[in-house]
């Protein structure tokens, strides 16, 4: 067991994650959390006196070259499919380095960095990407992209949060009602409707920068999401049929979560030398 920082408020350990990967395990007076250095991916956050906030599949794969199913996978530098490349870019499958760690009375602040050049043939640029997390009674995720090259590049991206819910059948997201969306399943654009629940199959890109509340009466809580510099929310639950074709979702897992992803799904330019940011703040309210 390797404790990398400890004081009277809490401690952070670095531990194996499966046989190939490493994770940071946070134990603090106000919350427990886990963060995989592979993918720079939050796996868990549980404020004191609350249930776990994120869903993590029992069938998740902890292997180099695979994405981990659950928590907050990073979709970057592209969201969804891009030309011949697979879904969601390479950031969720690279190793991130710990660059800052501060345990204070109210929070644990963790900063991790990935820096690279020409990581993918379809994205031959030089960039430094930083994620700053604040784990406390509230959760913050600040994603910063710096263009280290001499010409502009563009990205799309998402913080692909899997939220643990009692059952999507019981859940509403009132803020999405009436907001315009493109449906990825039918291909229909600029739709509007009102959802009575978030049972899948649902795969929608909403055009909204508003704060969102995931209302889960059965669980007795709301999850409040405040976006930072994003233009979209992506709502995804695969539904039973599709989930059964996905080998890293345990049987019935689709009935335990909903994804609501703070995203920029249209290409965003980043000039040479420029630094841009997006992110999200998450808090829990009892209802
Ligand atoms: O299986 P992946 O690559 O993690 O993607 C999961 C889902 O992620 C969502 O963000 C997409 O809108 C869906 O289309 C996709 O199926």
UniProtKB/TrEMBL annotation:
Q: Which SUPFAM superfamilies match?
A: Galactose mutarotase-like
Catalytic residue list: 160, 261
The catalysed reaction is: alpha-D-glucose 6-phosphate = beta-D-glucose 6-phosphate
The record's InterPro entries line, in alphabetical order, gives: Aldose_1/G6P_1-epimerase, G6P_1-epimerase, Gal_mutarotase_sf_dom, GH-type_carb-bd
Enzyme type, top EC level:
isomerase
Query: EC number(s) of the enzyme?
Result: 5.1.3.15
Q: Which GO terms describe its biological process?
A: carbohydrate metabolic process
Gene Ontology MF annotations: carbohydrate binding; glucose-6-phosphate 1-epimerase activity
CDD domains hit by this protein: D-hex-6-P-epi_like
- UniProt keyword terms in alphabetical order: Isomerase
- Family stated for the protein in its record: Belongs to the glucose-6-phosphate 1-epimerase family.
Name the UniProt record assigns to this protein: Putative glucose-6-phosphate 1-epimerase
Species, as recorded = Thalassotalea algicola
């Amino acid at each position: 067991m390797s404790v990398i920082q400890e004081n009277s408020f809490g401690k952070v350990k670095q531990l194996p994650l499966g046989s190939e990967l490493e994770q940071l395990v946070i134990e603090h007076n106000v919350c427990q959390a886990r963060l995989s250095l592979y993918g720079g991916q939050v796996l868990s956050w549980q404020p004191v006196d609350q249930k776990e906030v994120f869903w993590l599949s029992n069938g998740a794969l902890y292997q180099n070259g695979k994405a981990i199913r659950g928590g907050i996978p990073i979709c970057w530098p592209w969201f969804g499919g891009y030309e011949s490349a697979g879904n969601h870019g390479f950031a969720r499958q690279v190793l991130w380095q710990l660059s800052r760690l501060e345990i204070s009375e109210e929070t644990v602040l963790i900063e991790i960095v990935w820096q690279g050049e020409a990581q993918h043939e379809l994205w031959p640029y030089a960039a430094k990407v930083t994620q700053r997390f604040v784990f406390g009674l509230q959760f913050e995720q600040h994603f910063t992209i710096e263009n280290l090259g001499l010409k502009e590049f563009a990205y799309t991206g998402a913080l692909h949060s899997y939220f643990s819910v009692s059952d999507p059948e019981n859940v509403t997201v009132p803020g999405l009602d009436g907001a315009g969306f493109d449906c990825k399943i039918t291909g229909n654009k600029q739709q509007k409707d009102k959802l009575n629940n978030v049972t899948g199959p649902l795969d929608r890109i909403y055009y909204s920068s508003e704060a969102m509340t995931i209302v889960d009466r059965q669980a007795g809580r709301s999850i409040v999401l405040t976006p930072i510099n994003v233009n979209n929310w992506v709502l995804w639950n695969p539904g039973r049929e599709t989930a059964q074709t996905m080998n890293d979702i345990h049987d019935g897992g689709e009935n335990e979560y909903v994804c609501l992803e703070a995203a920029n799904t249209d290409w965003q330019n980043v000039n040479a030398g420029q630094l841009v940011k997006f992110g999200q703040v998450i808090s829990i309210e009892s209802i």
